[in-house]
Amino acid sequence: MGVSLDEIVDLRTWLTAVRDIGDLRDVHGADWNLEIGAVSEVNYRLPSPSALLFDQITGYPAGMRVLTSSMSNARRLGLTLRLGTELDDHALVRALRGKPAQWLRDHEHYRARTVDTGPVMEVVERDEEIDLLSFPVPFWHEHDGGRYIGTGCAVFTTDPDTGWVNAGSYRMQVQHARGATINIEAGKHGAMHVREWFARHGRAPVTVTLGGDPLMVVAAGTEVPAGVSELDYVGAIQGRPVDVIPGEVTGLPVPANAEIVVEGWLRPEVTAEEGPFGEWTGYYSGGAGQVIMLEVERVYRRRDPILLGTPPGKPPHDYSYMRSVMKSSMILDALLATGLPEVREVWAHEEGGGRQLLAVSIDQKYAGHARQAGLLTSQLPAAAYMNKFVIVVDSDVDTRSLSEVMWAVCTRTEPAADIEILRKTWGSRVDPLADPGAPRYNTRAVIDACRPFERLADFPVVAEASRELCDRVVAKWPDLLGGR
Fold first, then answer.
1. Per-residue pLDDT reduced to its tens digit, 220-277
2. Cα distance between residue 72 and residue 427, in whole Å
3. How far is CA 253 from CA 115, 124, 224, in A?
4. Could you tell me if 448 and 374 are in contact, meaning their C-beta atoms sit under 8 angstroms apart?
5. What span, in angstroms and rounded, lies between the C-alpha atoms of 169 and 93?
6. Which residues pair with 183 in a beta bridge?
7. Residues 6 or more apart from 163 whose CB is under 8 A from it?
């Protein structure tokens, strides 16, 4: 009898459920130096890639494992989000409609619950006992600046005034046995918390999960609004509070069912050379520079911990599919909440890392409707970070198909009239086009790829068979045409 969605309480039960549906593959004997990263990268490019669990890693005892590709297809992402395992791409997006907004409404009913202990406390390492490289931390990409322990991580910070706990997913490079740099983008909630702590107290408390239920990584990598804790958001998704233990050093939450959690302090004067790193844009962007370093004072872990890896890179990468699905649903909900009529679909394409290339479909109802949809989408909080292209299409175009979207651009867009350029919008240091040292702006284009409103009545008819005719011939020749 398999594990039900309600029985998933940690990474171990998640792995059992994934193995039950035949979506987990074991890899033995890989080297932490490049091989884990390369095997994972090749796997991402397979149709519907399986999750990979690496064991017997070169130089490490059996049982010290690394998991990658945790949410690289619809079945496992559906399982992680507690929506089911039989959803394809289209069904998953439909199932998510309204869910992020519902989770936000419900999060207050699922506040994180403080407990005395949990599996993460099986081993507690203090001060000189700590060695971050006792874990099989991969050297992910050939030109990385070092070994990155934090890819599938959740970095917990807190507002010094309100106590609001935020979780963000920021890359972490091991610098020495007890130190790891945390590269936080300036506009992120975690960076705001750290700046406030530095200004008031000269240091900032941090805890970090380095392995656990992938659901925490979903929340940490999603633009959850300020003031809402990702711990409570995860509680709303899974339908029960997240159990946490106060850290011995900072008092910040330590998720009780995690695999590995580190705790310590950031200080503005304690930095180290960080990077480069193969980022989600597909480049070693952002370069190398001095980054604040976490001085680790405690490690909480299970006896045989599993490090969760979600390394980015040229798409598709480890979490590009997850981000595309999550961003699509969140942007759609936000766009509908503006009151804009006749919005049909949104898709955040993996080619743009789930951020840079958005497609929106509408049924046009008035002159300017398409342009309004594009401009609104481009500046929604859920969509604004590092977005470069918003393409608005008619509802006959499948937003998930880049082929169809670009066909619409080529046949329904007049470049001189239908492309709006917005300047000095929210960019990122990982943009390969960013000038070193310059403010992190970018430029974005809103492309109207809808039929001209004034020509809706007489625009040429699309030359393709009707849905009814296609269904009829597939039913007649199912073996030939892929029917069932």
1. 988 788 899 999 999 999 999 999 999 999 999 999 999 999 999 999 999 999 999 9
2. 26
3. 10, 15, 18
4. yes
5. 23
6. 171
7. none
Pairing relation of β-strands 253-255 and 343-348?
A: unpaired
| Residue 233 host element (H or E) | helix 230-238
Q: Residue 348 pLDDT > 90, yes or no? A: yes
pLDDT at residue 266, rounded to an integer: 97
CATH number of this structure's domain 320-467: 3.40.1670.10
Q: How far is CA 277 from CA 111, 181, 208, 288, in A?
A: 35, 12, 20, 8
Report d(CA 267, CA 137) in Å as an integer.
24
Provide the token pair at 475.
């039913």
Model-level pTM? 0.88
Name the amino acid, one letter, at 76: R
What sign does the CA torsion over 151, 93, 404, 479 have?
positive
In sequence order, the 6+-apart residues with CB closer than 8 A to the CB of 397 are: 359, 361, 404, 405, 407, 408, 449
410: buried, middle or exposed (CB in 10 Å: 19+, 13-18, 0-12)?
A: exposed
pLDDT in tens, 226-242: 899 999 999 999 999 99
* Nearest CA-CA partner of 179 in 212, 140, 201, 146: 146
3-state secondary structure 267-284: EEEEEEEECCCCCCCCCC
* Category of 275 on φ-ψ map: left (φ > 0), alpha (ψ -120 to 50) or beta: left
Dihedral angle over CA of 352, 357, 363, 369, nearest 10: 170
Q: Under DSSP, is residue 148 helix (H, G, I), strand (E, B) or coil?
A: strand
Return the SS3 of 87.
coil
Q: Are 244 and 112 in contact (CB under 8 A)?
A: yes
> What mean pLDDT is predicted for residues 103-111?
95
The sign of the torsion formed by the CA atoms of 158, 164, 165, 169 equals negative
Instruction: Give 157's strand partners.
Output: 166
Helices (H) and strands (E) in the chain, counts: 14, 21
Quote the percentage of the chain above a pLDDT of 90: 83
pLDDT of residue 1: 46
Specify the residue for token string 């039989």: 86
pLDDT, averaged across the chain: 94
**286 has a pLDDT exceeding 70:** no
CA dist., res. 402 & res. 393, Å (int): 12
Q: Please give the single-letter amino acid code of residue 437.
A: G
Q: Among the residues of 97-183, which ranges form H helices?
A: 99-106
pLDDT band with cut points at 50, 70 and 90 for residue 298: very high
Residue type at position 103: W
